[in-house]
Structures are given as structure tokens and as C-alpha cells.
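Reproducibility note. Readers wishing to regenerate the assembly model reported in the main text can use the exact inputs given here. Chain order matters: entities are listed in the order in which they were concatenated for prediction.
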Amino acid sequence: MNIPSIAVHGGSGTITSSIEDPKNKKNYLDALQEALEAGFSLLKNDGTALESVMKSVTILEDCELFNAGKGSVFTSKGDHEMDAAVMDGKNLNAGAVAGIKGIKNPVLFAEDIMKNTPFVFLAGNEAMEYARRQEYEILPDSYFFTQLRYDQWTSLRDSGEVKLDHSSDNELKFGTVGAVAVDSEGNLAAATSTGGMTNKAWGRVGDSPLIGAGTYANNKTCAISCTGHGELFIRGVVAYDVSCRMEYGGMSLEQATNEAIFTRLKNLGGQGGLIAVDAQGNISLPFNTEGMYRGMKNNRQTLTKIMH
Amino acid sequence: MNIPSIAVHGGSGTITSSIEDPKNKKNYLDALQEALEAGFSLLKNDGTALESVMKSVTILEDCELFNAGKGSVFTSKGDHEMDAAVMDGKNLNAGAVAGIKGIKNPVLFAEDIMKNTPFVFLAGNEAMEYARRQEYEILPDSYFFTQLRYDQWTSLRDSGEVKLDHSSDNELKFGTVGAVAVDSEGNLAAATSTGGMTNKAWGRVGDSPLIGAGTYANNKTCAISCTGHGELFIRGVVAYDVSCRMEYGGMSLEQATNEAIFTRLKNLGGQGGLIAVDAQGNISLPFNTEGMYRGMKNNRQTLTKIMH
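Running the prediction on these inputs yields the following C-alpha cells for the assembly.
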């Protein structure tokens, strides 16, 4: 047993250019470290796994380096649509939201849905009616403006095409943030948040807010947050696939996550990774892309890393 | 082997009052029969499982008796928001849509997304931009008007509350339609379509359009379409749970579906049912509600039924 234990991620993909500059690299690692420390500190002080993942993910949402919350990419219309989900492994409660605008911390919106409505999933413009009813502050687009994301968007937009695929190979492909944790009581939780795809249109929803695809937690098995080519994670039902390999197939966390990423996802032609923790505090951080912004922390070890 | 084989459903729940009138009951059974025969006829004439489930579900969408397509319930605003999904078990391709308006056959929209975009899931008002781009006919609200649904809605609306729970016990609780099939080649497919909850607000999305929750198909295991209390099917990832019990737990279709509905869903406090078929043409139609509109057909047997 190695609990409590926490892991975080800030997306996966081709990320060479983002970290060529050592200062840039340090900024990413520092941000991951801050999210880890804050989440772990809660766990050490009798906080729950749920509180811990919420804390870590809101910190990553507030950091403009990652594609979630403040750092969300631009849609084809030049604004920002965000998705998020949270799941509590203790009771399988879950909350999720897709396509919301102007909300500082989409993961808190997802938790609100979980705790204060009979629903699990609200999507699209209509979900904003719930935000207004709950008196969320609706931030102006300027809060979400970052020069990097703006430049990425305009270069895609000005290509004159409706870009359906992911953005260029010179940047992070799959921007997402997430956290998974197990607390001292053995309770698990997972949370994921994303700004989606640069120049995205048509209300496209990826795997992040979909329970079982990009986010899942169950005290009997594991907590999972994914980052990658969302469509393939949906078709592979990747997060719940890991859980089922453990529950029905008797695999360890490491075996199950490796199978899900290196066999199932790969066979589907999908790229990405995930972070996972089980009730014993074991952690697994597999990915089949060039890199994945990630970190983990327990009583024995603290690690933040980007490339292999 | 008992292929080809097909099953359909038209929702589950408390349905006594709907079928007290023998003529009403006959209308429901006739509609299920028509959907079954049309889907099965395709299967007998070298049609694929995918073509077959699409045919059956569009027939059920066009029938005003069921809560999908034409018979969709009213939202809190007095219009109609529809969700649908389709999955092809041969290649795990999938398409899904949530919160669309004015589209005659949402399941065809989901298939269009699957076949003609790199995406799996489009949601909300933004998804309608894709519909306009593809020159879908946008039907007026009057097409979706049915006196029964209107009366259900006004009685809820006029109660003065924001109704979050499901509608009264005197009517079908979980309106959905769906079909699953296996063709002569052993390919599986599943499709589901729904008008959601009466008086629903805030862009609530249930399990129907979520791959792995309400809809799933995989040639290695089974094809599943669910109907029930959507939130619990999402938290249970019920459709993919059945598949995993077969793939990783070595269960038969019947064992896996019974476990999913009578153990897992029940333990979560969820009500509903599902239709399932495997590659050998076995069919299972379990539900834990008073009734489920359902039918199945293969070379040996044709059945349509409502109550236990």
C-alpha cells in the first residue's frame, strides 16, 4: 500500500517545440509540480480524493500553458468552448459538461452538476442557462486570450480550409488536463478538463467529458484521466476499458493500462495517453505519443516529466 | 448459430396506462413489428447489420407513438431536442449527436457524422451548423407536435416547478428507441434515438448518444441499445459493461446482460433495460421496469412484447 497518491497530466502529443527553450520547459514542470503539491497536500491533511483532483485540475485550468480553462484554444468562431468531467469512485457519482463558454473553471461546473442536479451531463449553449441560474461569473473572451493560442488559431483559420484534423505537428496535439487520486481511506477520484481542438466547429465533443471514455473512477478498480485523439478514446471506451480489464480480467493496473494504450488504442489507430491510480496507490502513466506532460506524487516519490 | 437476427425496443418503464386500451396496445405492437420486419428483410437480402438497424430505428423515429424523432417529448421551452447514436461493430466506427432540433431522423444525422466527418460526437446548437452545411431539411416544430406529448408537457410545466425528475408514473418513463442486429457475415451494429425527458432543461444529455453508455457494438462481443434512467446508465457505462463482461469475464450474452441490468444497474438504483445480440445471433432483452416495448426476429422466431 502506498496511499495517499496522486497523478496529474497536461496533455500528450508532439511537443518538441514547446520545450526546446529550457525556460519554457521549466514553466511546464513547475506548473505540474504546483498542481501535484496542492492536491497531495490536501490528501495529507485528510482531504478526499475528490477534493484533491478538483484542486489540482483547477490549478491547471488557471495556468495559461495548458489547453483548459484560461489556456483554452480558439474555436472556428474565435471564442472558447470547454468540456470537463469529474467522477467519484466511492459512489460512482459523476458530473460532466461540454461546450460551455466564459466559465473560469469548467471542472467546478462539472462538480456542481454532480452534486446539485439529478443529471450527469449538460451540453451546449443550453447548459449556460444552468450557469446563469447558479450565478456563475461569465468571463469575457479576453480572460481566455493567450498569444500562443491566438497565433495557432489564425494560422489554421487563414489557411482557408475548414480544418477537421488536429493542428500542426509543431505543437502539442492533444491539449487536456487531468488528475487522479486515491486518499488515505482508499477512495478514488478522477477529473479531466479541456479546451478541445483549435479551430473546432459544429459542437464537436471529445472524450474528456464522457464518463467511461476520457474520465472514470471506481473504488473497486482505478481512477483514469485520458489525453489524446478523442474520437479514438470514445470508440475504445478507453477509461472504462482499463477498469474492466482489472475487474473482469484480473489484470493489475499496469497491465490494464498498458493493454489499453499500447494494444487497444494502437489497434484503433489512436494516439494519446492516460494517468491512472488504483486503490493501493499504484500509479501508471502510459502514452504512445512523443511526450505527455505528467507528474505523480506519493510518500515515497515525486516526479514531473514531459518526454519519455 | 442463428443469424441473421435483429431486436428493437421502444422504451421501458411504467407503461400500464399506455396499453390499457387494446387498440392502443395493438398500435404499439404493430409499430415494433413493422420496424422488425423492415430490418430483418434487409438482413435476409444481404443487407448489413448497420443498414438494418438504421432502417428499423428510422421507422420508429417516424412513428409518433415513441419518444424519438416525430414523437419526441417537449423541452421546458416547448420545443424538441433529440439525441442519437450509431455504432458499427465491424470497425468500431461510431457517430452520435445530442441536442439537435428540427431533424426528422436524428439517427441518420449520427450516421452522417460517423461516415462523413473525422468526429464521433457533435452536441448542441453548434451541431446544427453541420446540419445546415449538409443541407438537411429543418422541420418546423409542428412536425413534432403530438397531443399526448403536449399534454404531458403542459401538465408538468403548469405545476410551476422546474421538474428535474422523470415524468409521472402514469406514463412511459424512459422513452427511447433502438435496434441491434447481426448480419449473415457476423457483423454487429447498434443504434439508439431519443427525444429525452419531458420538460427537460439545461441541455441535459442522457445515455442514448454516449458510446459505451447507451449504445455499443463490437463484432468480438455484442451489440447493445439501452433504455432507462440515463444518468444511471452513464455512471454504470452499461452498454460497454456488457461487452467487457463477455470479452474479459468470459460470460455469455445472457449472463452478461442479466448481470448488467439485474445486479450492476440495480445496485446503482437505476431502472431500465436493454436489447442485445451477439455474433451467434443470440438475443437477450432484460429489463427491471414494469415493461419494455420490444421485439426480436430471426429465422426461427418472431416476437413483440410489452409487459413481462
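We highlight two features of this model. The radius of gyration of chain B is 17 Å. The helical segments of chain B are 22-44, 49-62, 106-116, 127-133, 147-157, 230-236, 238-247, 253-267.
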